[in-house]
User: Fold this.
Amino acid sequence: MPRLPLSLIAPLALVPALAACSAADKGPAPLAPEALAAVAENPDAPREKLARAVDALFSDEAAGETRAVIVMHEGRIVAERYAPGYHENTRFVSWSMAKTVTGVMIGMLVSDGRLRLNESAPVPQWQRPGDPRGEITLKQLLQMRSGLRHVEAGDPPYESDEVRMLFLDGRDDMARYAEDQPLAHEPGSTFQYSTATSVILADLAARVLSPQQDPEGRRHAVADYLRTRLFEPVGLRSMLPEFDAAGTLVGGSLIHATARDWATFGEFLRNKGAVRGAQIIPRQWIEFMARPSPREAEYGAQLWLNRTPTQGRPSLFPTRGPRDLFAAEGHLGQYVLVSPSRRLVVVRLGKTEDSKLRPVVDRLADVVALYGAR
Assistant:
């Protein structure tokens, strides 16, 4: 085999390196037109980086199906994008984001003097002499430490208490199903995430708001309270709550609203319950909701917190995001992220299996990282 002259060997040796440099010079792939169009001209962050971060939620197959994303900074929408078939007037189901709405409603009733945070929850059947459930306080219910027996997201699903309550034998009277459960732990001693607990809170609201405890009376009283005290003052025009056959708000999972209204709700929380200078709920209540509970550091009162969990894996991104960030979260990857220090609200709505949410959370962390503290 003939030998190449030395004068040719050196240039040939440089070919791989030159090819690599050429590829690097090309930079990242060009953005799709809809990706950049979804971001405001001045989004208070690098525009192209924000467009790419939002686009990743839609284009990354590992993130599942994203249907809507809104980024709101200092009360202004700076990015808004929808998947085909969805738009600004589409109502999206809350799943467990409803728990946070329920938590706010309970705070209003406490502020009104109709419920008391540190007293026994007024569930009639728990007040019978000798019933240990009479020791459960409203505060313990809010912080998911009632001690009631409960299995959430069990295997098989049809044996999970939230599935039985929502869709099977408990569906016609969800509060009765939830309140009939015995204690598995001493009240206050153990954190147990429970959709049933939020239904109990919704039942307590109906009990104090409705003079007539018939289903229609309960439905009307709670719907009217939410509309006049929360939805209309905050500007949540699309928010639509569901009720069961007994007239109980399905307060753990079924409230529908547009992506913009979910963002508006997040902005309401960011401002600690104030809207255009009017305090709709005492700011101390929102601070309470966003404070770690005694039994789980990443959970407050019907809110998830960006903290290292006391047990298990983190729900959010405590090693990357601001410590003050909190979130309303829902089944299949519904998120309303709120960071007061970064004046930021980020909404993601879609359909991703709960066991595969980490890529979604990581992409949301990328969005949050583009905004620094003031």
